[in-house]
Structures are given as C-alpha cells and as structure tokens.
Amino acid sequence: MTKDWKTRTKLVHEGSRRSQYGEMAEAIFLTQGFAYPDAETAEARFIQAGADEFIYARYGNPTTRMFEERIAALEGTEDAFATASGMAAVSAALTALLRAGDHVVSARALFGSCLYILEEVLTRFGVKVTFVDGADLEQWRKAVTPGTKAVFFESMSNPTLELVDIRAVSDIAHAQGALVIVDNVFATPVFSRAVDQGADVVVYSTTKHIDGQGRALGGVVCGSKQYIRKVLEPYIKHTGGSMSPFTAWIMLNGMVTLDLRCRAMADSAGRIATALEGHAKLAKVIFPALESHPQHALAMAQMGSGGTLVTFDIADGKEAAFRFMNALAIAKISNNLGDAKTIATHPATTTHQRLPQDQKDALGITPGLIRLSVGLEDAEDLVADLLQALDKV
What we know:
This protein is α/β, with parallel strands linked by helices and 393 residues long.
C-alpha cells in the first residue's frame, strides 16, 4: 500500500495518472474545459463530479490533481488544493474559514504579506485578530478562548528562524475547539511532521523548495477532505486563485528531487552556520541546528534538522550589510528562498520593508540582518564566498 512507501518513493510515484498512451512522464493537460459524451453526463457532473472527473480548470485538472494527491500523501493529509501562489494559499486558508465576528490568534512573527492579510484584510471584514509571541506558550493560553475559530503561525518564522511548538500550540487550540493552520514553508515538506504534531491545515508556497529552481509561482493547502472540499474548494472555485496545469506540471517535476535537494541544502546550511558562528564581524548567527539557538532542542524534536536557511546579523548595520551583499560572488541578491541557487536577502529593506520600525525591532529584524537561503552549490565554495565578502565589510 502506498501509505507504507518512504518519502522518496512517494515523491516519484504518488498521484500519477496515465492516459491510454502509457506515458512515463506526467502529462500536461493544457485545457481549461472538458467535453462530455452527452448532456446527461454534463448535468450529473455538475451535481457531483466523481473522483477522476473534471469540469473546468478553475475547479480542477488532471495534472493539478496529480500534484495535489502527491503533496497530500507526502504531508500526511487526506486532501490538498493547489493555488496560484503561496499567498493565495494563505489568504484562502484563512478567508474561506472565517466570518465577521470570528476570532483568530496568530503569531506575531510573520512574512509581511501574511501580516497584511491578518491586519488589513480580515479585520476590514470584521474578523478579530490577536497577535502573540509565537514562542511564548503562556501568551497562546491566554489568547485562545472558547470563541477562537483558528490559530495561525509559521512553524519557523521568516526571517529570524524562531520556532513555534506545533504540538503544544495545537493542544492549546484544540482544547478550545480552534483549527490549527500552519505556514510550513521554512520547515519544508521533507522535514515537516506538522500533521503528526497536531496541525489541521498546512500551507506551503510551492514557489520555494517544491519548485526549487525559481521557475513558477504556486501554493498549496493541505488538510482533511472535509476542510479542503467543503470549506476551501468553494471559496477558491469562485474567487479564482487556483493553480494552472502547466505550473502543476512544474511542481510535480520539482517534487521528484525535493528530498535530495532539501537534505543537501540543510547539510550545507549547517556547515555554513558552523563556519560563521563567532565571526568577529557578526553580532550573531541564527540556525536552529546550532546548540547556541535558544530552541535547538525543539528544532531537533520537531524537524530533526536545522532547515535550509541561515540568518546572521552583521554588526555594523545596513551599510555594512550592503557592502557584504555586493561583494558576494556566488550567492545572488534576491528575495526568494528554497532555490537551487544560494540567495542573500536583506529583510529590513525588502521582504519586511513595509513594517513599522517598532515591529521590526520587536521581531529582531535589524539593519544588519541577512537571510541566506542555501542552495545546491558546493558548501566549501559557499563558505569561502561568504568569508571573502565579510572581509570586505
């Protein structure tokens, strides 16, 4: 049975569909509509489409369905729905569930666009939002009440790599009847055990590690069949945030090497963090697999890995950080992550630029902070590149 397959086998074979031609590679069904043999079949399908029946690409497509089934099998959920981007996934996961008057509790350390959804969009329509320090379980206990509909957090925060204890927060939320929605992009589907640890809904930007080569935007929401088909699917069908078949095909091909890539990246990230820790020009190095990380034990229990990102703070601030980035020879300056190419990002002036300074200060986003998404280059080359760039600071 497929449930007994190991991760790499699932990543190659789960969800596969073959046409009458028996193709080995997953087929791209580039069609927005589907023909019916007769009017009666069309009527029946609109009443209730079968498991392998399709109506319109905004509702579903064979290629997209292959991707959804593969990621659901990997994540350990009953179902999944693919979206046009990671933010489409986050937005839909929350908005499809919440109504005016509902209450959601969220960790404060979030990607800027996620904060926008919670602070600006949901509150505009009458949803009550409470923010807490994600690592402080006592704050979760006080904030989550019997009226709380959902909790939301990044399992590892962007960009300061702070972890939320998924099991503990899930226990707090479930005791009050709240749904647990986790943005798990930094943990990756390879190192994730979020569902086993209590998460009800898991969200990914497939733009990141799942594609892994900077080619396409995408997202996915994984959860129970009831949540995906009864809560989420109607919302996405009618608002139009579904993934295109061509993008789904790209993601399917990315998944084949996902485990190999993430493990290689994480290994290199560990070597980089070790090489940089204690450097005279760095105020600190943040990497969950380092014993100096305040949540090292939680990271090892929750992920079994430090992940693929390393964050470090250049002591002399923004100008020094810019000199460092401009001196890099291998790592590229960009704002993506999870790519085969190593990427350096300055969050304070890019991904988190819109945050007021007091929020940046509270989240630890300093003027010298660099987020390094470690790619597939040779680790020794990357270490040498980073050290020579630090020499220029």
